[in-house]
Amino acid sequence: DAKTTQPNSMESNEEEPVHLPCNHSTISGTDYIHWYRQLPSQGPEYVIHGLTSNVNNRMASLAIAEDRKSSTLILHRATLRDAAVYYCILRDVTRGGADGLTFGKGTHLIIQP
Amino acid sequence: DTEVTQTPKHLVMGMTNKKSLKCEQHMGHRAMYWYKQKAKKPPELMFVYSYEKLSINESVPSRFSPECPNSSLLNLHLHALQPEDSALYLCASSRIQGRETQYFGPGTRLLVL
User: Residue A69's pLDDT is what?
Assistant: First the structure.
């Protein structure tokens, strides 16, 4: 799977939007962009994924650049419970079969009350 | 039900002990995973089971012995561990096709004395 680059940490205020960037300049045409997050003392949890178009779900939105070399995870109104490490992971789903996730260092999101 | 359960939550063991970690899911997933996470580091893949057979071993030392007795259960048998094996051990499961979303348990925090 291609590599991703994320800022080590970001800080935001409660109830404000948060934009978490991810660079993936070597992305291939069949790589999906997945986001997982890990809250303190918990296992990672799936947040959202997309291929080319922007995606929304109840947790977040994913904005994908036109050239797909970068993406942004958007939390529309951050709460203290959104404080976590956010991981951006590329997955070539055409390869099929079960395969592990390759986690980068992720972004540690700090939410100030 | 999208829950993956892991027992025990915490485990302290000596270097001569034998212990086992257990993981269970009832989502009908046929892929199950073990990850290891050291403090302040991202999770790292250890093993993947597909249809109850070991499909990926990321060159893990033989003192870690995985077992998948049925499609809902995954064990990790531990023997003669070293203090540097102290970590959070995470279990995950997913459907097989298309490298599906993985669901993680809360982990077992292991301390080797």
Answer: 96
